[in-house]
Amino acid sequence: MPELPEMETYRKLLNEQIAGTVITGTEVTREKSINVSPEAFNEQLTGRTVWYVERRGKHLIFHLDNGKRLELHLMLGGFLFFGREEDKPDRTAQVTLRFDKGNLYFMGLRLGHLHLLSVKEVEGALSKLGPDPFDKRLTSEKFAALFDKKRGSLKASLVDQHVIAGIGNCYADEIAYTASIRPDAKIPLLRDEDWERLHRSMHSVLKEAISRGGYMDQPLTATDVLTGGYESVFQVYERAGETCGRCGGTIEQIEVASRKAYLCPGCQKE
Prior knowledge:
Blueprint: H1 4-18, E1 21-22, E2 25-28, H2 38-45, E3 49-56, E4 59-64, E5 69-73, E6 79-83, E7 93-99, E8 102-107, E9 113-117, H3 119-125, H4 140-145, H5 154-158, H6 169-178, H7 192-211, E10 252-256, E11 259-263
Antiparallel strand pairs: 1-3, 2-7, 3-4, 4-5, 5-9, 6-8, 7-8, 10-11
Subunit structure: Monomer.
GO molecular function: oxidized purine nucleobase lesion DNA N-glycosylase activity
Domain FPG-type: 235-269
């Protein structure tokens, strides 16, 4: 599932491609991916200018010139491609937005959605999201306070979008590793210095992942060389059985709250 760095990469690249351009038409092949009829979707979007694209957690919000918004959540398996029909991946697009210089294809939206909403409806839909990891007001103390009432494992809380928005399975493991804390550590047992390390690690891991275009292997355009660069530098995620680059131990896969998790038992001690 795309997480904060992947969606931030999309945000940046989409603003370069479509900000200030006009939607010339739409196509919907799966009505469940949108929240209005395909006819209404096309009528309300054709002729509208996309002002800019915003990210909130794992969501993208397309700001339109009539005050409406398109709210996107890719969920598991969703991805985007912008370009010509002949260049797009050999996958069915559930929704397509057409522009003069190319089409924006929304693919893999079996669980995800692209909803046409008012400003008020967007705020309501995203009102329960926790703060963004890069919120300037989120000090290490306020970060720790987000977990005050939690009693379960660290990873389960890091991936809870109501606690903090944008972190999923991959980056939760990478953040825990960088902070030298096990992903299955119990929240009440963590000390102030642990939270300070986690706060620093969260920023460093996510910033590096963004700089490398996240881990998705599907580029946004035919000339996109940014997307997917972080996969080659995973420290523990999906590296079970490989050697830890920090201590030389063997990376293990465990289960945390019914999710796979990866760690180095040498670096991340009980």
